[in-house]
Design a protein that fits this description.
Blueprint: E1 5-10, E2 16-22, E3 25-32, H1 45-66, E4 76-82, H2 86-103, E5 107-111, H3 112-118, E6 136-141, E7 146-153, E8 156-162, H4 168-178, H5 185-193, H6 216-232, H7 236-266, E9 278-282, H8 289-302, E10 306-307, H9 318-331
Parallel strand pairs: 1-4, 4-5, 6-9, 9-10
Antiparallel strand pairs: 1-2, 2-3, 6-7, 7-8
Helix pairs in contact: 1-2, 3-9, 4-5, 4-6, 4-7, 5-7, 6-7, 7-8
């Protein structure tokens, strides 16, 4: 059997990442972050694209070296086509096209959100992780997207629920900003929440029918609550930052878990295994310790079969692009030099 090496390139936001995979076994996964955005309280698209231009060559070179292969051994190059920041995506897309032409190897375009889901199928050289069985549900949560996806096969995916406004990760980051925490605020809320009381404060939850989400009202409720309390005590946030973090995190997680439970009930007829579908999570917010614990609790209390990706494959990374590229390679689903990036998620 011919060895299939895939180079994956990820540049959808502010992380420049490259990975090399042998079939579905990860050989290297290198990421360069961008600290410059901390000064602005969020990602600045123009600065992000400039940093990608500086980082992409050394990151790819390092990934190939760490994989201990030569670039002429590569079978194909996979890249994130979207969704994401167009300027950032253009850097990765342009490099991938040039790399493909220079080596005369196939070009494979990958959807960022599909790749997050397929990160569950990355194997390590030392061991094989258990993987969800088709069909399964995936809760995909990040700073830009919140979706419940029904996965029938590697590329047969249907979004059955999604946010109608803010994403869960955005709610975390905006809540942190309201509290005066530095960017990125989501991980800081997670850290502070570990020493807080999640039942100390109560915030309104949206009433949205079906499987869709909404987080803008929760953000507004949090803002008005703090505004009123700061009038009484200017030090309210500092005195209560642990309990505030725990309470807002618990509220976001409760919203996510309630919709996921509803999705599992609605899809029980699809399961030939006489129970619920397998449940996976993906996206940057899947690194949140509170969400991971809530899913572990559901495993024990409700009997859900849960799949949680390793932390290194939760946030944006090229390993997930490479593995998605590998499955497309097997199908012969190649891209072309005319492929252009897209900023918004595709309708499925």
């Amino acid at each position: 059997m011919k060895q299939t090496y895939i180079l994956g390139i990820e540049s959808s936001c502010d992380d420049t990442s490259a990975a090399v995979i042998l079939h579905d076994v990860i050989l290297s996964n290198v990421t360069a972050g961008q600290d410059v955005h901390k000064n602005f309280g969020g990602v600045v698209p123009e600065l992000a694209s400039r940093a990608h231009q500086q980082n992409i060559i050394p990151v790819i070179d390092t990934a190939i070296q760490k994989a201990n292969i030569r670039k002429n051994q590569l079978s194909a190059v996979a890249f994130t086509r979207g969704p994401g920041l167009l300027g950032s995506l253009l850097v990765g897309t342009s490099f991938a096209k040039a790399f493909s032409l220079g080596l005369n190897i196939p070009l494979i375009e990958v959807d960022h959100l599909q790749a997050h889901i397929l990160s569950h199928f990355i194997r390590n050289e030392s061991h094989t992780n258990p993987v969800p069985e088709f069909p399964f549900l995936c809760l995909t949560v990040s700073g830009g997207h919140t979706q419940i996806v029904l996965i029938r096969d590697y590329f047969d995916m249907e979004v059955i629920g999604q946010t109608i406004d803010d994403a869960a990760g955005e709610a975390f980051d905006k809540s942190a900003k309201i509290m005066g925490l530095p960017y990125p605020g989501g991980p800081l809320i997670d850290k502070l929440a570990r020493d807080g009381n999640p039942g100390r404060f109560t915030f309104s939850k949206p009433v949205i029918p079906g499987l869709d989400f909404s987080f803008s009202g929760l953000k507004t409720s949090f803002l008005y609550f703090l505004r009123d309390e700061l009038k009484k005590d200017p030090d309210f946030i500092e005195k209560n930052k642990h309990d505030l973090s725990a309470s807002i995190q618990a509220t976001i997680i409760e919203i996510l878990m309630a919709k996921l439970a509803l999705a599992l009930e609605k899809t029980r007829n699809l399961n030939t295994r006489n129970g619920y579908l397998d449940v996976a999570i993906a996206g940057g917010v899947s690194a949140n310790s509170g969400l991971r614990q809530a899913l572990e609790n559901a495993r024990e209390a409700r009997g859900w079969n849960i799949f949680i990706p390793p932390i290194q494959y939760s946030t944006d990374n090229a390993a997930m692009i490479a593995v998605a590229g590998y499955f497309k390679f097997l199908k012969g689903a190649f891209g072309s030099q005319s492929d252009v990036p897209y900023a918004r998620a595709k309708r499925t």
